[in-house]
Specification:
Elements lengths: L3 E5 L9 H12 L3 E13 L2 E9 L11 E4 L5 E4 L7 H11 L6 E3 L2 H6 L16 E4 L2 H11 L1 E6 L9 E4 L5 H7 L7 E5 L8 E7 L2 E9 L14 E3 L5 H16 L4 E7 L2 E6 L6 H8 L3 H12 L1
Helix pairs in contact: 1-8
Length: 305
């Protein structure tokens, strides 16, 4: 049966949204109707969740259709795919979507995205976590750095390698830390530097609690940041026994919490992030292996919706 699908995203049909475009294109290939919904155009209107949207018919016509007004409760499936940062606008859309998730299948579950931020979720697996501090206290960050000597700091709610810096106990840059903790900013995540980053930051991609593929991002020469947006390159990889153990623990939790799409980041067999916001992996796995995780995703959705 054809489904009415809304994709909350930006720039469907473009390189900037290639993973989400693959989700939308697979829906079209199965005969479903797809609307692109703009994150800033979701409104609660007298008890109804209304959005401005465009009918999406494929990349060739992306962005050309007129905007129309749709009731999101009339959809069968809603994909929530805006990129972080996770700010109050982002969270407000999730709060509103959470109110209709009993009527519509929302992927990923809004309550789970709210409750399990990608840099906090790994705390549920302490045996796989590198030494980690989450704090706004400069003295705590300095003490943590003194204990671990070489530390990476990053904003709690950013993505794509933005705002990452490296500090050491011998040259602790308090001014840098204070600048990152400007008034009103969230805490910083500090983690012991993992030398294995030179061999890459592995993304293990899950669909519906099962591993759907993996690839490794290797930093460009002279860098310790492996994110693709920061110049990292992607390569084939294999999953280690320890990573398989983590996957066995994580998979059932994802299913239980309505998390259909997830990407975990692993360095030196340590999990650093568990991404359930707008996880990338569809395009990289297709490029490297010729496999299409979006097919498994829609097979699962069609059994559930």
């Amino acid at each position: 049966m054809p489904l009415a699908v809304a994709v909350i995203s930006e720039k469907l049909g473009t390189y900037a949204s290639q993973d989400t475009t693959r989700i939308a294109d697979e829906a079209l290939a199965r005969g479903h109707t797809v609307h692109e919904v703009f994150p800033a155009a979701v409104s609660q209107v007298e008890g109804r969740l209304i959005a401005k949207a465009r009918r999406y018919t494929g990349a060739a016509a992306a962005g050309t259709q007129e905007r129309i007004r749709v009731d999101l409760a009339d959809m069968d499936v809603i994909h929530f795919r805006p990129n972080p940062p996770v700010d109050m606008s982002y969270l407000t859309t999730l709060y509103l979507l959470d109110r209709i998730k009993d009527q519509v299948l929302v992927i990923n579950d809004p309550e789970s995205i709210i409750s399990f931020p990608e840099k906090i979720f790994p705390l549920e697996f302490p045996e796989f976590l590198p030494p980690t501090l989450i704090s706004r206290d400069v003295d705590e960050i300095r003490d943590f750095t003194d204990r671990h000597r070489d530390v990476v700091i990053k904003p709690l709610y950013e993505y794509g390698g933005r705002g990452i810096a490296r500090v050491t106990s011998t040259a602790f840059d308090g001014e840098l830390v204070r600048a990152r903790l400007a008034e009103g900013s969230p805490p910083l995540v500090s983690q012991a530097f993992l030398p294995g980053i030179t061999a890459g930051d592995k993304r293990i991609f899950f669909i519906g609690g099962d591993v759907a593929g993996a690839f490794v991002r290797i930093p460009k020469h002279g860098s310790y940041i492996a994110n693709i947006a920061q110049g990292g390159s992607i390569h084939r990889t294999t999953i280690t026994p320890r990573e398989e153990e983590l996957a066995r623990l994580l998979g059932p939790k994802l299913v239980e919490r309505g998390i259909y799409i997830c990407g975990i980041d692993v360095i030196d067999d340590h999990v650093t992030e568990i991404n359930i916001t707008s996880s990338v992996g569809f395009s990289q796995i297709e490029e490297l292996y010729g496999e299409k995780p979006q097919v498994a995703l829609w097979d699962l959705i069609e059994k559930t919706a």
